[in-house]
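Run log, item B.
One chain of 98 residues. Sequence copied directly from the ordering sheet:
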Amino acid sequence: MFDVLLEKIELYNAAFDSGPLGDVMYGNVGKAIVAKPNLVIADVSSSDIGADRDQFQLAKKVKWNMDDFQFPYISDLVSFVIPLVERAVDITGGKFNS
């Protein structure tokens, strides 16, 4: 099932639950299950598609054990410099622009 989810993620430019996960669940009505304890949960503290919500209030409502998850998730940011002799490249925003 994880392979199917990973394939679906590549197809969607949408939130995980309403895009790839929803596609898999609705395509397998009667066969889908929910893992307990949860393997993943949504970060609802900020949203581009709806209202921001209180993560811990929702967790209590839907019975997510927040102690099982690193929240807020902190990712390391890495900066690097690529020396080019002949031309400069702007990699702002993760895109290579000549």
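Observations after the first pass:
- The chain is about 25% helix and 0% strand.
- The chain has a mean pLDDT of 80.
Flagged for discussion on Thursday.
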